[in-house]
Amino acid sequence: MNTTISLAVLSLFAFGVGSFLWQVAGANQAYAPSYMIVEGLTFAVVGLVIHVVDKHKFYLSNNMVGYGVLGGILAGIAVYALILAFSMGGAGSIMYPISRLGMVVSVILAVLIYREPVTITKLIGLGLGVSSIVVLSR
Questions:
Q1: Which residues make Cβ contacts (< 8 Å) with residue 22, sequence separation at least 6?
Q2: Positive or negative CA dihedral for 30, 36, 39, 41?
Q3: How far apart are CA 115 and CA 87, in angstroms?
Q4: Cβ(87)–Cβ(28) below 8 Å
Q5: CB within 8 A of 129, min separation 6: which ones?
Q6: Could you tell me the residue ranges of all domains in the chain?
Q7: What are 5-38's pLDDT values in tens digits?
Q8: How many alpha carbons lie under 13 Å from residue 97 in its C-beta half-sphere?
């Protein structure tokens, strides 16, 4: 398996478990902003540890700082919305598939901005993925 695919699989499991913990927080009526702060601080510490281990000086262009801020705002909205949905009794078997439709947005943006090629195989795969999410959320 090539390295990029291995990293994507690692991300899949880490994000999947991390997302499940949002359901745990919601089911236990955790105050979402407090949970998000703890999660965000932990995220920052992990980034800091990786930075120190890599011995790389901190640098981001102004554009990347802006994208980082925007990404943080959007991630915060996403996490808050899901934790709130779970605290209101939303079922993971419905909430997760709906939120994962975000992959369609990501793929469309990658095609439009980075001009990634669209093949029939990719379209079929995306269609099957969306179909499975729709079926799972019923």
A1: 35, 79, 82, 83, 86
A2: negative
A3: 40
A4: no
A5: 103
A6: 3-91, 101-138
A7: 999 999 999 999 999 999 999 999 999 999 999 9
A8: 13
Structure tokens at 118: 């669209």
User: Which residue in 112, 130, 117, 32 sits closest to 76, CA to CA?
Assistant: 32
Type of residue numbered 41: L
What are the tens digits of pLDDT across the range 66-75? 999 999 999 9
Query: What is the distance between the alpha carbons of residues 34 and 83, in angstroms, rounded to a whole number?
Result: 11
Radius of gyration of the chain (CA): 17
Burial class (CB in 10 A: 0-12, 13-18, 19+), 38: exposed
